[in-house]
Please model this.
Amino acid sequence: MILESKILSLKERYCTLHKNIIVLIWYGKKMRRYFILLIVFTFTTFAEDGYRLWLRYERITDSKVLNTYRAYIKEFIVVDSTETMNVIREELRYALSNYLGCKVNEVYEVKNDGTLLCGTTSSPILRTVVREVKRRELGDEGFMILSIRINGKQCIVITGNSDKAVLYGTFHFLRLIGTHSDITKLSIISIPKIKIRVLNHWDNLDRKVERGYAGLSLWDWHKLPEYIDPRYRDYARANASIGINGTVLTNVNANAYVLTPQYLRKVAALANVFRPYGLKVYLTARFSAPIEIGGMHTADPLIPEVRSWWRRKVSEIYSLIPDFGGFLVKANSEGQPGPQNYGRSHADGANMLAEALAPYNGIVMWRAFVYDNSIPEDRAKQAYNEFKPLDGTFHSNVLIQVKNGPIDFQPREPFHPLFGGMPNTPLVAEFQITQEYLGQGTHLVYLAPLFKECLDSDTYAKGEGSIVAKVIDGSLFGHNVTGIAGVANTGNERNWTGHLFGQANWYAFGRLAWDHSLSSEEIAQEWIRLTFTNNNEFVLIVKQIMMISREAAVLYMTPLGLHHIMGWDHHYGPAPWIKDKHRADWTSVYYHRADTLGIGFDRTAKGSNAVAQYFSPVALQFGTLELCPEKYLLWFHHVPWDYRMRSGRTLWEELCYCYSAGVDSVRKMQRLWNTLEHQIDEERFDHVRMLLTIQEKEARWWKNACCLYFQTFSRRPFPEWFEKPDTTLEYYQNLSFPFAP
Ligand code: GCW
Model:
């Protein structure tokens, strides 16, 4: 029951075996001696479909490492048998026997060296181990892993103030083993820096996933609540293993139906499966729900009947799901209803829901992703304009959820000016794990560097060092409720994320949500070791691929600060020529503003003055052509084609250079990956190899389409070293993708 994959891989092996037996009978008795060989072969080679994620627990083959581990982990104790402690027990039993290739028994007292002891700080056997001060410091979720002597015996203790903390500690310990780390002298304290660490699923009730590239939604609503897919448990387990403690099940483009009694029972069934793994359930609340499912004629947040409708709804939810997390709301954005439909503010709307949730300790995550084409203002400025004046007017259980950048999950954006701009309101940072604008399901783009770039950006809100991460973790302005959200990339494809390397982005989000000070390299390394192998050479090569991948995507898609020039609506592939649509802020020409003089969006004081939303000296740096980092150049400036870049090239040449460098990087990724053939299973090797072929083809497509298009404005020849497009701009412009996901 711990892993559906265990059953499946056995099934796969059984089927193959079955086929082979038939073949053998056909060949007659003479072949009998090959029979044994064939069985052995069948049992050792089975499909590596990626289902097991980073929780593979492969048998350790390095004898030195194995012997040490066997000496330090001979038996284990799990104090208590709560639901979560039972999960820990089962995980240890499964993981340790797999890793060590021998049975590790559960015992009930410390009698021997090599005892692994898991329990909360209040359990009798551990009460004296952790001092009061430390206990307070650990909070509800922090854990300790210590090498100590108990009854004179060498033990490893995993402890924390709650079962959930011990679960996190257990997964951390198993990660140490999986990465072949030293466990002989352990003294680890780990406390999550951010409290609410949630995935946002943009999953619809018909199981379609908005911006999902890995199949259908994991939630099989139709069969719930009776049918519990084993995958739900594996999902919760995967999240717990990286410290994610909440999940918003439904799309922010919300359907009120999920709040009906019929659906709430389904939600409760999921919550029951997730609970032992410390994973809380949240829902998106459609603002017009009182009308759509409540039979009311208005959803005006200041009308008492509407408020009491929400209070009753919330109380109904908690009667079914006592630990329900709260609501995520997208209001008055991209057609979603909201308080402004009634002339009320975002604060009026958020506070109404917050009041209903407060008695149960529920929270509201209210999104700041608002912009309106009818407002004659740079889209990049609108969220700040709307929310900055509301700072300090929200109830204490409201968090404002802000995307990493001011437009929309582009391959590169400067940090959102609301970070630092709302000192009196806790902000949730929202990142996209799914790769809507980043090659979707087929490009290998490791996103930790993108997440880190935002988290490490200095807002200067309280002088130097006021980085976004400190805004989010509450330390800069002293907030207690803190949160971070990642738009999930999971679906019902066998390997969860479509692209195998998409798993790394889920993993990295969780690890950074727990500890934003980890480096992208560290996280990549962990993931590679857990997902593939501990072979150092292999790890180095894959790490290299991952670490160049994000910059590669920026270069072949939107170099030098370009943004939002993807295909109309589906956002697949290049389409910088998109114009004349019903909303200007959904066209490409709105963003790149190319003309015969130059290219880029002037957001300086002479233009939209978006730079003024940043603190000094950031505003000055972004707003001054010579000071602006070139990676953001065309985000903030309209720059002449002959402008001299730091490389000595003109802007036009530099643009061609970047697009070419992007393609070259993908080719390098391909070359590196190809050196790994035979070092891992064929299935995963081929899966990645073929996807890299698509990525190279599409990188070239991006380069050719964009350079040919921008050339119509620059009116300059391609540099000599430029690999010339083999077709015309019209060809690219005529491509259409009616069935793009
Ligand atoms: O990135 C854009 C997407 C929409 C999405 C919206 C949002 C859920 O294209 O599909 O809607 O952002 O974040 O609300």
Summary: Residues 2-44 form one domain. Residues 202, 210-211, 252-253, 330, 334, 369, 408-409, 436 surround 4-O-methyl-beta-D-glucopyranuronic acid (CB under 6 Å).
